[in-house]
Amino acid sequence: MKPLDAEIGCATALVVDGNPASRSILTNMLRDFGVRQVVQTSRAADARKALEYRHFDIVVCEYHFEGQAMTGQDLIDDLRLAQILPLSTVVVMISSEAGYERVAEAAEAALDAYLIKPHTEEALRERLVQARHRKRVLRDVIQKIEARDYLAAAELCQARFETRSACWIQAARIGAELWLKLGKPHSSQKLFEAILATRALPWARLGIARSEYQAGGVQKARRTLESLLNDQPHYADAYDVMGRVLLESGEPDAALAALRRGCDLAPGCVARVQKLGVLAFYHGTPHEAGVALQRAVILGLNSKVFDLQGLVLLALLKFDAGDLRGVTQCLSSIKASREGQPQSARLRRFEEVIQIVRALLERQIAEAVMRTQGLLQELRAPDFEFEAASNLLAVLARLLRREVKFPELSEHLQTLAARFAVSRASCELLSRAAHGRPDFDALIRECYASTCARAEEAVSHTLSGRPDEAVALLMDAAERTLNAKLMDLAQHTLERHWSAIADREALKARVDALDKQYRSYGTQIRLGQHDIVRLEQGSPRPGAEATPAPGS
């Protein structure tokens, strides 16, 4: 049979199918098409492991696996949510389910084709030819993305969209996702709306909701999602976004219900199950959190799609239940994970937290105090992120509950709260991490009020024609507290009023130095453009949408 294209002989393929006969048939089809290297696996979990550590040009995957927790959709969702599946890979899902809801899910998972069984060899060939052609047309975009030059990739997509060049709809979708990644939701929304105008695609409607949410239009996003879910009640991804929107709206119970529905639809998706566990830890019940986190561990502990923060939360729940064996198992798992990343400060801190609660259960109070003091000394470290601060508060609350005393604790808590209380949402999360201690809560909110006061004072200077004083004030406070909101507002004010600031070069050097030292890890909270607009319009609520919510 004629090869698919001139490059197919160098391609590698993965066939994922639990049925030996159909797996063999698909493998033979691919070889007939000219693919020389074809790997086969009968389990979605094995396919996930293969795709995490090896590149494949083509993936042909069955949707349903008899007797297995994961579906083909769960597999693709996990890889997509963890950003592991390369854009250059052609993914074809095969299923006997011809329902529109499943087709919609497949499209949202960035599949290149969806075949309904029984299908012919010619049908598979046609889908692969079309998909590989699109990849070649968009190769310049894909190469920019692989080089992490996201702005250049987005601009290429935008140009292809505006000129309606070949594969412009696919380029528009990629561009819309990139604009969201780059924090430009309005540009993203325009592309999603253009796609939607060509066809009523559920993923385009979801993209509009995501753009509205990122732009600060929480209620608009909610209405869009409600309409979408009314039409597509089996759309798992939409429940993920709805959970974030409801949490932002101050409705944690409804957010939990949305994530539960998403997990019901995709029970084998590690990322979704873990999100539910994290949200339940902070806003729900310990029992539900424990069940979900334990299930996520079973489904994907040794996978890249599993976030090891889940082990920390599970260990805290095991500690609360007095389960020394459970805490020890979490510790063993985190130690095994650290072997592959011995230099990771994040994993080291995870291990320290679990070591502390194990020491407490074993009545090794001195060891628990020593390890906790070590973490307290890192509060101003450049790579000490919001997640580490939340975990530290959780440990401190449990230590104090056992009447363990710490010297200078109030000063340490002041440092933590001043740095990480950047929004109402972050205050809420920090307070919940601290097990609802009233003294911790009061200090966190006091620090947030102080940060808001500095921000509002700076804005008043800017509005009075003194932007140089505004930037200087913000930088003084940012250097003292390391608060991300103050850093972002200083940078924005400097850029916007550059020509009106006399000592702009010196101020820029300070801004750049702080940004380079404390914002280069990709783990700090950033202020969104819509939050800055709120500040300049006198809104008392800056930064709320910029905080990563638990389970989001």
From TrEMBL:
It comes from the Bacteria. This is Response regulator. It holds the Pfam family Response_reg. Residues 12-132 form the Response regulatory domain. SMART domains: REC. It comes from Caldimonas aquatica.
